[in-house]
């Protein structure tokens, strides 16, 4: 039998959580969508665009998201993904020296200006790619990681398929124009979201406003870094037949959003459109922080157990992002049994918590035990079995009888012990 509401809840936790949710709604405006519905009431002056809640991987706005377009330097985000993956696996280290080949040195377009034959630390090449969009740095790293540019590009396309970028094809590691090299705003949003979620440390590089290598200082082409303090990445791009691109990511009050703008007419337009998308999301959505994972949600009585009760905790603690109009009256509703029977295993699901906004369920989280509760001794289990009979509808009649029967059983057990002791004493005297 289950019921809504907590069984012996921690009152302070419930009040604290309600206050946390109310405060989050009042103070935090952020972008997100618990239902994942993409909608837009603003006009985007670009070929295609996306606004994504990185926290929950939800699309908030899309505009021509599946139109094919040249990726330009957005390609470098996939190159960076493979670099950070290699770092994560331990295949390379930031202080590894990377040899600059003639192929890398001769690569045209935007450059870090590496010198032929030099050996440069990987960390510097990372900055050269993330900050100043160095095509030469991309080739150098590609050759170091996979032995050749062709092998690296093959790995890029394999990774793109793994990430679900079904409409993308890459022919080089930097994004210089190449016949057949195409992507979409949706695929780029998929890539950037995965990149930010898996490698948040990458923003240490993307947030740099300029980079100096060998006395050559170049600015980060993402000028939103200087216009909005919440923006800390991500990448720009441009090709003549594709226009101006910008991936812009920002974090406010714990929520991270990503705006993808492709095919804008000028750098100023791409910045304006990306910032408008971010501000739209932060203005119309509310961020609800997760419950405290270290604080129990409820305490439930345990029958036949070595412990009289067990604390239940949220199995997962993920932030929830909703439209403001759906955030009114948000509260957690517990569905847990009035009691459970031992044994109980650590991690066992014993209930559920629902984040409710009126009749709408915004999130569902399992409530689990974080400890083992082994069975009690045989006498306690027998006593609890008798008491459990009184938990049924006829308990009004049975419960008094259960206590009487329990007392009788206890007396009988005591009498048996006393009789046993007397018999042992008689035998001892007869032997004497």
Automatic annotation (TrEMBL):
Reactions listed under catalytic activity: Preferential cleavage: (Ac)2-L-Lys-D-Ala-|-D-Ala. Also transpeptidation of peptidyl-alanyl moieties that are N-acyl substituents of D-alanine
Protein's name according to its UniProt entry: serine-type D-Ala-D-Ala carboxypeptidase
Keyword terms of this UniProt record: Carboxypeptidase, Cell shape, Cell wall biogenesis/degradation, Hydrolase, Membrane, Peptidoglycan synthesis, Protease, Signal, Transmembrane, Transmembrane helix
UniProt binding sites for substrate: 235
Pfam family, one: PBP5_C
UniProt pathway: Cell wall biogenesis; peptidoglycan biosynthesis
Signal peptide location: 1-36
Annotated Peptidase S11 D-Ala-D-Ala carboxypeptidase A C-terminal domain residues: 285-375
GO BP: any one term: proteolysis
PANTHER family linked to this entry: D-ALANYL-D-ALANINE CARBOXYPEPTIDASE, TRAFFICKING PROTEIN PARTICLE COMPLEX SUBUNIT 12
Job description of the protein: Removes C-terminal D-alanyl residues from sugar-peptide cell wall precursors.
The EC number(s) this enzyme carries: 3.4.16.4
Protein's UniProt keywords contain Protein transport: no
Coiled coil start-end: none
Single GO term (MF): serine-type D-Ala-D-Ala carboxypeptidase activity
Transmembrane regions listed in the UniProt entry: 401-421
Family that this chain belongs to: Belongs to the peptidase S11 family.
Active site: 73 (acyl-ester intermediate), 76 (proton acceptor), 133
């Amino acid at each position: 039998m289950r019921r809504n509401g907590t069984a012996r809840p921690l009152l302070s936790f419930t009040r604290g959580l309600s206050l946390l949710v109310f405060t989050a709604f009042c103070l935090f405006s952020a972008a997100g969508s618990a239902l994942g519905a993409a909608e837009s009431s603003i006009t985007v002056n670009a070929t295609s665009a996306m606004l994504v809640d990185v926290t929950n991987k939800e699309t908030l706005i899309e505009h021509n998201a599946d139109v094919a377009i040249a990726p330009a330097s957005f390609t470098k985000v996939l190159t960076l993904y493979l670099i950070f993956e290699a770092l994560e696996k331990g295949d390379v280290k930031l202080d590894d020296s990377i040899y600059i080949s003639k192929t890398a040195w001769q690569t045209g377009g935007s450059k870090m200006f590496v010198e032929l034959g030099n050996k440069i630390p990987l960390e510097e090449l990372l900055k050269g790619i993330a900050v100043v969009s160095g095509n030469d740095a991309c080739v150098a790293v590609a050759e170091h990681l996979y032995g050749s540019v062709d092998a690296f590009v093959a790995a890029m396309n394999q990774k793109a398929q793994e990430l679900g970028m079904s409409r993308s094809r890459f022919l080089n590691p930097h994004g210089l124009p190449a016949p057949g090299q195409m992507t979409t705003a949706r695929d780029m949003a998929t890539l950037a979201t995965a990149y930010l979620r898996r490698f948040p440390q990458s923003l240490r590089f993307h947030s740099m406003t300029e980079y100096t290598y060998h006395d050559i200082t170049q600015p980060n082409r993402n000028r939103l870094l200087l216009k909005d303090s919440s923006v800390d990445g991500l990448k720009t791009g441009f090709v003549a037949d594709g226009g101006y691109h910008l991936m812009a990511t920002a974090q406010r009050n714990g929520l991270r959003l990503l705006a993808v703008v492709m095919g804008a007419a000028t750098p100023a337009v791409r910045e304006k459109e990306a910032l408008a998308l971010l501000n739209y999301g932060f203005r119309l959505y509310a961020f609800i922080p997760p419950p405290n994972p270290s604080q129990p949600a409820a305490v439930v009585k345990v029958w036949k157990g070595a412990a009289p009760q067990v604390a239940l905790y949220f199995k997962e603690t993920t932030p929830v992002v909703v439209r403001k109009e759906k955030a009114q009256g948000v509260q957690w509703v517990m569905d847990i049994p009035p009691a459970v029977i031992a044994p109980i295993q650590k991690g066992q699901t014993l209930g559920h918590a629902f984040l409710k906004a009126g009749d709408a369920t915004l999130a569902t989280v399992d409530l689990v035990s974080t400890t083992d509760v082994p069975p009690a001794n045989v006498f306690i289990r027998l006593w609890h079995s008798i008491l459990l009979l009184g938990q049924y509808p006829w308990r009004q009649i049975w419960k008094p009888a259960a206590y009487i029967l329990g007392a009788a059983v206890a007396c009988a057990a005591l009498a048996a012990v006393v009789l046993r002791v007397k018999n042992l004493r008689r035998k001892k005297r007869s032997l004497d």
